[in-house]
Amino acid sequence: MDLVDQASALYALPLDRFTEARNAAAKEASQAGDKDLAAVLRRLPKPASAAWLVNLLVTRRRDEVEQVLELGASLKEAQDGLDRAQLHALGQQRQRLLAAVARQSLEAAAEAGVDVGPGALPGVEQTLRAALADPAAAAAVLTGRLVRTLEASGWDPVDLEGAVGGPFTAPGQGGDGAAAVGTPRTPTAREREDAEARLAAARDSLREAEDAAATLQRRLQRLAVRRDGVAASIEDLEERLEALRREHADLAAEAARLERDAGEADGVVAEAKEALDHAAEDRATLGDRTGGGTRGVDC
Fold first, then answer.
1. Is the residue at 217 inside a domain?
2. What is the Cα–Cα distance from 248 to 276, expressed in whole angstroms?
3. Taking all residues of the chain, what is their mean pLDDT, rounded to a whole number?
């Protein structure tokens, strides 16, 4: 096998077997008289856990990894077209897909007889996200020979320096496949124009959002003034209502007292009428008696 094949085979091994297998391969090459190959093999670094999981995905779940990278191409087209609705939908799809594929790396590790904790998953997702953002990073991932995790940073190309074990040339850099690992590619004029267009569109969107926010803030302030005025009116009405309730209670108490007094007065009137009737009767009786006696004397 050539260097690429041997390196690929080594990086597909479980982590605890890597160092021993690498040294054995270097020794075999040296014994075969290929000192240069032996020297390169001996310098191959052991991958970090998250990088090894990504390599395992490429080896055992390559279709899923390629699906992730195809989504990256769709995102790039949506960005170029400034289709915000499509960008939002693809962004949600990307997050779900990244999380699902990252979890599959643990399943692939279990199939290889290696128990890797979930602590490595953020590095797997970060590396896949970088591969979405940069074709060179995608090519590095697909080698299956990552040594460390990758990270996208803004519009800058992903740093691939020392990221791949063995020879690797990023797409668009040319060379014979044995160039230094991770040399950042120079953006094309079209890419710069696209970036400027996206930046201008983002600035326009920001201005529109700021104007809309300022308009809403002014409306909110006006509503706050009206709200405070209504609240003050409600407070005044509540105070007036409370005063009216107290006045109503006082009037009700006064009416009840007057009703009692009126009832008592009606009783007094009835008693007075009755006394008057009795007095009239007594007077009439006395008058009759006086008139009869006089007639008897006269006789």
1. no
2. 41
3. 80
In a domain, 67, yes or no: yes
* Whole-number Å distance between alpha carbons of 252 and 246: 10
Joined tokens for residue 210: 């700021």
Q: Are 21 and 13 in contact (CB under 8 A)?
A: yes
Residue 43 has a CB neighbour count (10 Å cut-off) of 11
Domain, as residue range, for 57? 47-186
pLDDT tens for residues 214-254?
A: 777 777 777 776 787 677 768 767 877 888 898 899 889 98
What predicted TM-score, i.e. pTM, was given to this entire model? Answer: 0.55
**In the 3-class helix/strand/coil scheme, how is 225-275 assigned residue by residue?**
HHHHHHHHHHHHHHHHHHHHHHHHHHHHHHHHHHHHHHHHHHHHHHHHHHH
Total count of domains within the chain: 1
- CA–CA distance from 101 to each of 73, 104, 125 (Å)? 17, 5, 8
Q: Tell me the sheet residues that pair with 164.
A: 146
Residues near 132 by Cβ (< 8 Å), separated by ≥ 6? 68, 69, 71, 72, 75, 94, 98, 138, 152
CA dist 137 and 157 (Å) reads 8
* Residue 51: inside a domain: yes
* CA–CA dist 46, 22 (Å, integer): 9
Question: What is the Cα–Cα distance from 153 to 245, expressed in whole angstroms?
Answer: 70
Three-class DSSP category at 146: strand
Residue 167, CA distances (Å) to 37, 53, 176, 214 in order: 12, 20, 9, 55
**pLDDT 10s digits, 118-172:** 899 999 999 999 998 888 999 999 999 999 999 988 778 899 999 999 999 877 6
Per DSSP, the chain holds a count of helices (H) and strands (E) of: 9, 0
Answer whether residue 248 is part of any domain.
no
